[in-house]
Amino acid sequence: MWASKRPGPPAGGPQKKLVIKGLKALPTLPLSYKTDTLERLRSAVHAIQQNQPTTQGLEELYRDCEGLCLHKFASDVYEMLQTELEKYTRQQLLQIDRSPDTHAPAAILDQTRKFWDDYTQQLTMVRCVFLYLDRTYALQTTNVASLWAMGLSVVRQHLVETNMRSRLVRLFINEVTSERNGQLIDRPSLASIARMFIDLGLYAQSLQPSFIDATRDYYRSESLRMINYLVPIKQSAGVSAEARSSGPTDVPGYMNHVQRRLDEETQRVAQYLKPSTKSTLLATVLAELVEKHTEKLLGPNFDAMVDADMVSDLTNLYSLLLPVNKLDLLQQNWISYIKKTGLRMMQASDLEATLISGLLAFKRKLDNILSIAFQNNARLIGALREAFEMFINTRRSKPAQLIARHIDQCMRMGSKLAADDDIDDIFDRIIMLFRFIQGKDLFEAYYRRDLAKRLLYNKTLSTDTERLVLQKLKAECGAGYTNRLEGMLHDMELSLELSSEFAQKQPESAMNDIGFQGSVLTMAFWPTYEPMELVLPRQAEEAQNAFTELYAEKHKGRNLQWQHNLGTCLINVEFNEGSKELQLSHLQGTVILMFAEQNELTYSQIQQSTGLENNELQRTLQSLACGKFRVLTKEPKGRDVDTSDTFHFNAKFKCPQARVKISQIATKEIEKESKELEAHIHLDRMYRVDAALVRIMKARKTLEHSDLVTELLKQLDFNVSTTEIKERVDTLFERDYVRRDDSNPSTYHYIA
Predict the structure, then answer these.
(1) Is 698 in contact with 620 (CB distance < 8 Å)?
(2) Are 432 and 382 in contact (CB under 8 A)?
(3) Count of CA atoms in the C-beta half-sphere (13 A) of 262
(4) Rg (Cα) of the chain, in Å, rounded?
(5) Residues of the chain with confidence (pLDDT) below 50
(6) 347-362: b or e for each residue (b if 16 or more CB lie within 10 Å)?
(7) Of 7, 30, 160, 198, which is least surrounded by CB within 10 A?
(8) How far apart are CA 25 and CA 724, in angstroms?
(9) Residues 387, 388, 390: CA angle, nearest 5 degrees
């Protein structure tokens, strides 16, 4: 507590009292105070509106407004200010509205812009002078707007009550239309008018709806004018963008025009429209230019763009169709194009020579379009898969056979197909095609046949590459699918070890003479081969017997069945020009060795010595005496071999290569082998159909024929016709697995 330092009254002195008395009379305002003060304030408002200095200072004017408010005259001040603003607004806007817009419509907008800029600045100054009124009376009194809101409502009321609002909207739209037609306009004026409508609360209810309607009409007319004169893409190839825009254009040119229009409208929003207008405006443009003409933009034009690999134009197309929800039509055209192109490839006359390479190139092009143009859209990826599966399986077994053959060509030593590209990428793309085929069991059979030839004839690129392909196939179809193929590779590894052991146990002289190597093939893994009788030369037969004994010692109870038609040999032969190394089959080698002792032999002598059947012997002799490399000659001359022919050793044979490979003459045996292979696969499939039918009937007990077919097709991974299904069902009747219903023959019952 603070103590006073002033000395108090003397002790015991007289006490003084302070008395406060009321006023004898209350102070009164001068009679003219209200009128004079309001007049000073009114004069100040006039000066502000005329951009002239006020006769009094702003602080003095603020005190006048404060004094009136304190003396309960706030409502009079508010009314005076509202009246003055209304008079000024009416005078200025009526003067602008009287000007005709026929000669210079932009001048009306410019005058309105100038009025609005001045008016908002003046209103800010007026609010500063009457700030006390705004913060007390306007804030505390209900249904009384702030000075700023009241100033804006004055302008809004005049525009709404007169025709000026619709006139400004019309002139605004006319200016935008002129700009769309390529003319230069005063964008700042439009930006100011748009801000005025926004501040007045008239943008959403007046300017924007009319502007969108006008935009819709403008682009509807433009789209019809351009769409009706579209030219085919092939007629406009190589035409520049400038030439396209000056006359009739094609679909790519039209889409470039749409993109340019969208960019223009986006800039328009950024420069003088409300940002919230953008979505509605762009949607309107797309609806008129794209959505209503989607079918004309697609169809043959879409096919031509994909054919020509026009990725940038397809990117434009996708970006335009996505916001208008027309991807369903794009998907339909995408599927249609893939199916049409694929079916055309499947029906080509040179199918076997070009199909797989064509499909790989086709798939790569489509994948590139999907990735770049269509942004890896999931629906379009699924559509591609659906279309590929449809057309590639129209030829049933052919795609599986040709894919296996293509892999075989890539896997062979010295292959040109794998020389220029990454081998892993090549097989990844081939596996993509493999996914689409339904006859995967048929592919496995063909692939196994080709793999056997590569391994047995030592033509494979490398064992690692073979295992790489098997890993990819296993990832696609499981370990059971590649079990036999992996077993074949394992057999060859074991055979190399066995041959090495055999070579070590043989006398040095015997190995130098012949160099025998044997491959032991597990019958369960390898294709089925028919055994062939062949009388081998003495040294070869001795080596074969020794190998058989060694194998019998290592594997008790196992028997070897020699397949001489699969063996190959290298024989050094002396000709007049020097020694040549001939690469031959066992059959060819056996025949050639007979001429080491005699230069002339008859057909009968050769057959008696070799024990070969006529067909095999004729093929063998034809390859040696009638082919490209004729190490034998025959009498009489000709391209066919007869049982009465005589053969001579051709000592005059010439060839620039030191090693000469003489291939067997191709016959219809290969075609026969393919048919037998397909027949075997077909029989196996029918067994699988039987098993699936029994499983379904055992689980469902009773089922309609149509429902049974539906369930069956869901379980099978290959195509089967309804006729084949009916035949298999009939066999189940015969074997008492199912029976027909007594009252409804199309209903089946399972017999437990």
Answers:
(1) no
(2) no
(3) 21
(4) 50
(5) 1-4, 235-238, 241-246, 511
(6) eeeebeeebbebbbeb
(7) 7
(8) 124
(9) 65
